[in-house]
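stuck on this:

***
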Amino acid sequence: MMAEDTSTQAADRLKIEMTDQPISQRLKYGTRLHSWVLARLVEMIDDGRDFVRQRESDWDLVDQGMRMYVDLDRPARNIDRSEDYDTAQMPFKRTIVIPIQYAAIMTRMVELYSIMTARDPLVHLEGRDARDHLTARVHEGIIKWDNMLSRAQLVLWQLLFDQERYGICCLYDTWEEDWGWLYDEIYDMEEPDRRWDLRREWVNWAAINPRRLILDPNFSSWDVQRADFVGHEETYSWLHLKENEKTDTQQGLYFNVKAARMRGGSDDEVDDATFGVTTGEKMHTEYDIPVGTVSFVWAKIIPREWSLSEETRPEKWRFAVWEKKVVIAAHRGVHQHGQFPYSIGSMDLDMHAAFTPSIGEQLQGLQDGANWMAGSHQINTMKAINNEGFFAPSLIDPRSLLQPQPGKWSALTPRGERMLTNKMMSIDQMYSQKKIVDITQNHMQLVQQYLTFSQRVAGTPDPVAAMPLPTKRTLGEFEGVMSQGTKKIGITAQLFDLLVMEPTSRRHISMRQQFTSMPQIIRLEGKLKKELNADSFRVTPEHLVGEYDYIIHTPTMAPDPARSAAVWGQLMQIISAAPQLLAPDPKTGKRLNPHAILNEFFTAQGVRYLDQFYEEVGNAQMAGPGQIQQGVQAGNLVPMGGMGG
């Protein structure tokens, strides 16, 4: 653990006076301040990585089950999780893997993913009052654009997959700016007119590998916002640092880039964490460009104690360290939301535990048991089908019996031939098949029971897994089984919503309000399209700035009624059943417009560009209630819901 260090001790040790030099100069590689800050950061990285590594042995077993892999050298695990190195977990070299973990996790994944991606965009915003309506829809369009650049649907899949396998997932949201060459008019292909400028900007969502997280061991893994530090590791080529280097003429994140290359890449051999396979290859590209680990650390520090500024109040700072050898980034966090940019999801949340087990871990015992049962039955069956018996070498030639020809003819000895010819013995008396009792014949029934238990644990009964029930059930019983399974998966989705989607969405809105600097074109739909009388809208930073407190409708929250197709459908049915509702309101003189309601119904269903389905007619007039009633009585008009019985 990190040693305590007071501000006085730090100042005495460093004896560095504050200067007006930029951070990149004060933390230049080789200076005393760089060495001291590096040591503190490496302590955080080591403590945070050790906290996560305690879970990796269990995660390895889940990954093996998901890949149908059996480690024949794995020692048997006792009930207290200790290992018996004198006994192999799987003593059978020829076996099969029963995909219990894979079936349960993938069934749950299908349900969870369909829940989390049911809306477009993923998050809906609703204003608190009429004044917020326009800005809420504009923000929503911007979030949709950002999600497209981040490939948010793929990110969600990986997050849910991590949570199901490891019991933890991490969403990292950051403000990204893409700087590069912009070409004006290309007249000369060899020397085109170009300028270095901002090409696009967005809020990026990234799924962080749980195995590479850096978590404060003093807090529960999910409670990341109360921690003193949090971070993660990424593998980059040195060229990534060079491309994003901060110079006098270039916007960038990194400094000490030259020193990072001189320190080289990782000296570690490439290791596959899942199977423990070491390739022996060094972390370099074929062009001798070093490839190494960059540790990103967001830490809550008192800058004065770190000799980074005169501030004596705690602040959040972002650091980056190359291979735990060179500090390559150090910046004060300037986000107005004031949070670490991490959202940690937790499977079956226990607010008092450091980690919670995943569905894959909960099924590990059943997985191992099913594999052993299936393997033992397979080996016993193979033994039974191989001929074993008793014979007298004086009657049957052992060479022909033990090494039969393709026709499998066996030769008798001269004595055996005389005994057979004289009818003193029969062939059946000369050879007897060994009777083998298959004591594993009930093993596959146990495997089926294990599968049933796994469905109860995971909440994936046969109907949820698209499998027929083993016995006939009534419709009510069938719906009850489906309901119980989907409810358990639904609770998991709600926890994911609360821990990941909701806090991330609030930070997303805040970053867009704070950092947006370039205009963005968004497509308009529904009521907003009608209000602005346009198909698209040019969003500028001024449209996003303001003190807005939106109602965030994440995937598992009840949708805005105005966007619910069911609500509009019910309204249309009410009007059809009571045509008098189409009469003008006696107070306002206005009347309902069925076409507008129909448009909202289809818009809520996701149908766009409804205007192209309308055609102009002559002097069309809307039929009044009396005319509609007459048409119904004459059979020329059919009320909604009146067809098909």
Notes: The two ends are 73 Å apart (CA to CA). Residues 564-634 form one domain. Residues 10-18, 267-282 have pLDDT under 50 and may be disordered.
